[in-house]
């Protein structure tokens, strides 16, 4: 492990560190949703603090005949990267404390030390990561999937009506295809909307969730980061968006304080939305 984590100074054996690492990663994995459908780039190393975000110019394909190009401008447009801006990779972290008495008791009694605080810290970081992915952070200038400028939107119908959930998802994929984006598509719903897909579609004999998965080859997910009446469809692909990771989730030792031992669960990453048109949100009318 890197020296900046100071793990050699902690009062944990290699076996205890392995158990803690497994717990931290496992707890986060059960909660994280964004990573399940967004391409990961990295880890690049904790020293990487910024990454470029390219701007790609648009353009229509040209039609040539014997008289030459039929473009209004008289010459073909070229799709290219016209500029870059740089995104900072924020540090997400949550500290926790292990009691020295609990550690000593575990050694004396021969049982594993209490790692509940580590699991709770990992869960907090997981929630913060998905919050950054889905909602961004306006104060620090980060956009998320739900508020990215240039995304598509389709109105959310009454999902109390059988078949409406599937119809809305299809409408979102059609909006993406019409703008030149293609499958695989991933669908993310609020827990409330997801629950309404768990019923038999009228006249078909299949769960609506199964029908949605037929058009969402990238997967159907639910996330508490979405409000009750929120959903989204994303055209997957690193050319559209990716999650750039400098440091993946890891635990560092901060040192003793009042005889107890302080640790930090941390990670550094940022969502890079290269083509916001690859996102279509489902929103209530008038929102």
Q: Can you walk through the features of this model?
A:
The protein has 287 residues and is of the alpha/beta class. It has helices at 14-31, 100-109, 116-135, 164-178, 191-195, 208-215; strands spanning 40-41, 50-56, 64-65, 68-69, 81-88, 91-98, 152-155, 185-189, 219-222, 231-235, 241-257, 260-273, 279-283. Strands 7-13-10-8-9 form a five-stranded mixed sheet. It has a four-stranded mixed sheet with strand order 1-11-12-6. A two-stranded antiparallel ribbon has the order 2-5. β3 and β4 form a beta hairpin. The longest helix has 20 residues, at 116-135. The N and C termini lie far apart (48 Å).
Summarize the structure.
With 287 residues, this protein is of the alpha/beta class.
List the helices and strands and how they pair.
Layout: H1 14-31, E1 40-41, E2 50-56, E3 64-65, E4 68-69, E5 81-88, E6 91-98, H2 100-109, H3 116-135, E7 152-155, H4 164-178, E8 185-189, H5 191-195, H6 208-215, E9 219-222, E10 231-235, E11 241-257, E12 260-273, E13 279-283
Roughly what fraction of the amino acids lie in strands? Answer: 25-35%
**Rg, please?**
24 Å
Low-confidence stretches: none
Category from helices, strands and their pairing: alpha/beta
Q: Termini, distance in Å?
A: 48 Å
Number of helices: 6
Q: What composes the largest sheet?
A: 5 strands, mixed
Average pLDDT value?
A: 91
The percent of residues in helical segments reads 25-40%
Helices and strands, in order, run as HEEEEEEHHEHEHHEEEEE
User: Looking across the biggest beta sheet, what order are the strands in?
Assistant: 7-13-10-8-9
Number of strands: 13
General shape: flat
């Amino acid at each position: 492990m890197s020296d900046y984590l100071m793990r050699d100074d902690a009062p944990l054996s290699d076996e205890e560190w392995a158990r803690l690492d497994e717990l931290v990663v496992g707890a986060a994995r059960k909660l994280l949703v964004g990573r399940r459908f967004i391409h990961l780039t990295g880890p690049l190393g904790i020293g990487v603090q910024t990454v470029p975000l390219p701007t790609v110019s648009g353009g229509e394909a040209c039609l040539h005949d014997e008289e030459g190009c039929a473009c209004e401008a008289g010459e073909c447009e070229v799709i290219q990267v016209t500029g870059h801006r740089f995104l900072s990779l924020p540090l997400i972290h949550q500290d926790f404390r292990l009691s020295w008495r609990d550690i000593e008791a575990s050694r004396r009694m021969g049982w594993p030390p209490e790692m509940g605080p580590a699991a709770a810290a990992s869960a907090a970081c997981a929630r913060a990561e998905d919050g950054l992915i889905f909602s961004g952070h306006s104060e620090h200038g980060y956009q998320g999937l739900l508020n990215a400028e240039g995304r598509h939107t389709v109105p959310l119908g009454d999902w109390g009506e059988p078949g409406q959930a599937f119809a809305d998802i299809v409408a979102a994929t059609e909006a993406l295809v019409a703008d030149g984006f293609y499958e695989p598509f991933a669908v993310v719903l609020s827990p409330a909307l997801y629950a309404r897909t768990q019923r038999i579609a009228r006249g078909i004999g299949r769960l609506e969730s199964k029908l949605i998965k037929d058009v969402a080859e990238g997967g159907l997910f639910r996330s508490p980061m979405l409000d009750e009446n929120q959903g989204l469809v994303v055209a997957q692909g690193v050319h559209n968006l990716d999650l750039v990771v400098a440091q993946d989730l890891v635990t560092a030792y901060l040192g003793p304080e009042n005889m107890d031992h302080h640790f930090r669960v941390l990670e550094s990453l940022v969502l890079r939305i290269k083509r916001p048109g690859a996102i279509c949100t489902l929103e209530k009318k008038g929102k």
